[in-house]
Specification:
A two-stranded antiparallel ribbon has the order 1-2. The protein has helices at about 25-45, 50-55, 60-65, 70-75, 85-90, 105-115, 120-135, 135-160, 190-210, 215, 220-235; strands at about 250, 255-260. It has two domains: about 25-75, Arc Repressor Mutant, subunit A; about 80-260, Tetracycline Repressor, domain 2 (Orthogonal Bundle), CATH 1.10.357. The protein contains eleven helices and two strands. It starts with about 25 loop residues before the first helix and ends in a 21-residue tail after the last strand. Helix 5 runs parallel beside helix 8. By secondary structure, the protein is mainly α.
Length: about 280
Amino acid sequence: MTRQLGPGPADGREPRRSGRRAGDSGTREAILAAARAQFADRGYEGATIRAIAAAAAVDPALVHHFYGSKEQLFVAAMRLPVVPSEVLTTAFAPGGRDPRVSLGEHFVRTVLGVWESEEVRGPFLGLLRSAVTSEQAAGMLREFVTEAILGPVAAAAARGLGGPGQAPVAGAGAGQPAVAGAGAGQARPEFRAALAASQMIGLALTRYVLALGPVAAASADDLAVAIGPTLERYLAGDVEAPAGGVPGSESVSDGGSVPGGIQPPGDGSQGLGLPGQPG
């Protein structure tokens, strides 16, 4: 009886494999290429790890093995050197700032510190310019900002991280945020987070894209001192709730809320030419 030689079954068919082995050459590149295509075609929200894995002919577990979360995969595909949610979570963590510095000033200085680094500025400007010139790019970036960035900012607002001199709320009990923004009729955290994002995106456009003289020439410290109080008010100060509330927000157990599809008017179309994406 002749014994079968080699790895294949007796009928000569190739053995079925769920994907490339972790050590195979080119696997990472295949995943990144598939991710760029999926993000471009489906947007950040519509692209899934499963679809990206299928396009790269690998098992979804291998995508998680190499890149972890979808946010981390997006960061790698866009060649961003930092994970925004990790930077913001660290900045807003208890003990993450000098108690003599207000939350707003700390927030501006933290974000500018990331933007000013050489390794971040190029990819960041590429994304920002794409969003300005293409509604498709704007839709995808909007989804990414909503899911990966506004979440930590809204959580900070929900915790009531006020700065020096923040007025306590009359009658605030144990476990309640002792900040002016916690009173009745005040804006929810997801609205505050969106206001903070509008301020910082506007700063990025005027400083880096338009290069508006005084803003472009100012130091990061000067901008943090000047803009910080506005961010402080957005996050923890007196901001009235918008009429009718904020569509798409979802309550969370701590009494705050998180962004849930915060979108400006538009058709939400997806797909774009991404920085570093072929074609």
